[in-house]
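User: Please fill in residues for this 343-position structure.
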């Protein structure tokens, strides 16, 4: 499809700079045959006993680092861990770096440039203190570029940009639909007879990369590492086989579930990279409902939700959201999407 089919006008002021407080007070647009304006805290009334809610328990690491190569100031943002413990990263300004250079972040934490790639991407290997402790001391949360932090770090983002169930460190972007959940809301959902199942997909910074090609067939999707274990598969299939619906919390959970589904109605354990790119025409194999945030024009995420609920329906829903002042993207409001069933 042509990329411009997914374009729409989004007022800049609707891109949220702060999260809703409390988290579950964010607005929720229920998109089915009709549109309903609700709040995230209304979720327990929208799901049924026997359903399963699948969440992504990845934990965001402070993956943005500022250091020096000699006199030059360098910023790098990690986006994917390689099997040999090196990391792919985006560097600014990349033109100041060459293979073999070392970027110093502190007296005992540095990164060597192992490889230089196109588009400002580099591969780095760390030395000095243990990686995650080095990131904790020197890094900061990798907020997406459309969230302005002119003052630099903001301590509240350390908590705001993390789900309450984050457990497995490795993401460099938050699974943002999950940011709306509180412990209280999760308890209410479980008490309503819904099984809450966890999987892991380490969200990469590539999720923010724009689609620069004219046709979606020519877009190269970034890959991300994920894991779905046997126990999670059994719980999901048990819900599905007894008449429950499978609801994915976020496009990341949906992408891993669909990657792990070999055929319609089937699911298997999964561990490894996925670069699944979902556009209209895709036949969903396992997910029945999707909770997600509002996405940017011409993004792979808006393409995914258009595949799930129908392009025209999503354009109508987004037009309603814009007119009604819904807040967009990572710190924005949410929508609950029903799958577009073929007629």
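Assistant: Residues filled in for all 343 positions:
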């Amino acid at each position: 499809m042509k990329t411009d089919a997914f374009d729409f006008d989004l007022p800049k002021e609707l891109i949220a700079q702060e999260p809703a407080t409390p988290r579950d007070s964010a607005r929720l647009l229920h998109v089915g045959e009709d549109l309903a304006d609700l709040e995230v805290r209304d979720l327990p009334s929208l799901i049924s006993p026997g359903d399963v809610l699948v969440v992504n328990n990845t934990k965001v690491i402070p993956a943005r680092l500022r250091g020096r190569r000699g006199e030059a100031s360098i910023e790098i943002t990690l986006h994917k861990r390689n099997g040999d413990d090196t990391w792919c990263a985006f560097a600014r300004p990349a033109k100041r770096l060459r293979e073999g250079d070392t970027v110093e972040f502190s007296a005992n934490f540095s990164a060597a440039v192992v490889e230089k790639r196109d588009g400002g991407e580099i591969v780095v290997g760390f030395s000095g203190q243990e990686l995650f402790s080095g990131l904790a001391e020197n890094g900061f949360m990798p907020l997406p570029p459309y969230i302005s932090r002119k003052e630099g770090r903001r301590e509240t983002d350390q908590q705001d940009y993390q789900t309450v169930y984050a457990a497995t460190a490795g993401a460099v972007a938050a699974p943002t639909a999950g940011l709306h959940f509180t412990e209280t809301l999760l308890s209410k959902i479980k008490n309503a007879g819904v099984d809450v199942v966890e999987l892991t997909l380490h969200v990469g910074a590539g999720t923010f990369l724009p689609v620069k090609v004219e046709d979606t067939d020519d877009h190269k999707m970034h890959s991300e590492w994920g894991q779905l274990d046997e126990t999670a598969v059994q719980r999901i299939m048990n819900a599905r086989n007894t008449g429950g619906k499978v609801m994915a919390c976020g496009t990341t959970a949906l992408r891993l579930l669909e990657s792990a589904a070999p055929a319609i109605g089937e699911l298997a354990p999964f561990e490894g990279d996925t670069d699944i790119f979902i556009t209209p025409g895709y036949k969903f194999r396992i997910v029945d409902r999707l909770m997600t945030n509002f996405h940017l024009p011409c993004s792979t995420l808006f393409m995914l939700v258009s595949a799930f609920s129908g392009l025209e329906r999503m354009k109508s829903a987004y037009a309603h959201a814009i007119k009604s002042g819904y807040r967009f993207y990572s710190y924005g409001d949410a929508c609950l999407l029903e799958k577009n069933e073929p007629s």
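For context: The chain has a mean pLDDT of 94.
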